[in-house]
From TrEMBL:
<dbReference type="InterPro" id="IPR041698">
    <property type="entry name" value="Methyltransf_25"/>
</dbReference>
<keyword id="KW-0808">Transferase</keyword>
<dbReference type="Pfam" id="PF13649">
    <property type="entry name" value="Methyltransf_25"/>
</dbReference>
<dbReference type="InterPro" id="IPR029063">
    <property type="entry name" value="SAM-dependent_MTases_sf"/>
</dbReference>
<protein>
    <submittedName>
        <fullName>Methyltransferase, putative</fullName>
    </submittedName>
</protein>
<feature type="domain" description="Methyltransferase">
    <location>
        <begin position="71"/>
        <end position="165"/>
    </location>
</feature>
<keyword id="KW-0489">Methyltransferase</keyword>
<dbReference type="GO" id="GO:0008168">
    <property type="term" value="F:methyltransferase activity"/>
</dbReference>
<dbReference type="GO" id="GO:0032259">
    <property type="term" value="P:methylation"/>
</dbReference>
Amino acid sequence: MFIQLEEINSRPEPFGFYTAADLWTDEHTSEQMLAYHLNADIDVSSRRGEFIDRSVEWIASRFSIGADTRIADFGCGPGLYANRLAKVGASVIGIDFSKCSIKHAREAAREVGLTIEYINQNYLDFETEHRFDLILMIMCDFCALSPSQRRIMLAKFHSMLLPGGSVLLDVYSQSAFKQRKEASSYGVNLLDGFWSAEKYYGFLNTFKYDDAMVVLDKYTIVESARKRTVYNWLQYFTPESLWREFEMAGFADQELYADVAGAPFDKMASEFAIIAQKK
């Protein structure tokens, strides 16, 4: 038991393990995530419905979206942005790891007569011959990727954009990183049964890596038939550190905002958004 507890409480190297599939492809947890996505009154998995409406209105105005605009939404979830953007005339492709979310997105689009291509795939592996005016990665998805994965994504974005096309994404800030604290907790059916429909014992260890500005929420889930560990990594950024990554990928001009609804940039806010343009 002591050795097992030592393992549960061990601190891995930053991004030493990647377990996104356990979160997005497990049937039970993906259904839990979808429920959070579809709750328009909370900021979990997706923004509140009112914010998404404002965000889409700003995006449509900022990028002059019309019938000729091609958009790719990476990490589209159940289509909350993609469906709204299609309604204002854009041609949209949505890519997401979760079969459950993609199924909902397709059904929601079909119900209102929208033609949207939804692709159930890990977006790190996504390839297409299509080229886009705008690429989205919203709800700080970029922060969950390791440095090597972020290089892959930015190179992919750059190659998939038309000349003059843009990326819009949001990230967690240095201010938010300073507010995170290391902690450990334990509970029966931790997070109210989020991890399994069966009884389980859950351990949560939060580790901070000050030099890398990374936080890990490490969940160890012990069920009667199995034990699993889920690593939820989050990279935090300054505007300078984020722009360096875009610049290395060949992007030119940038604009900074407080969020993806176009609020003015605030260095004390917990998040910020960037628009980066392909040369």
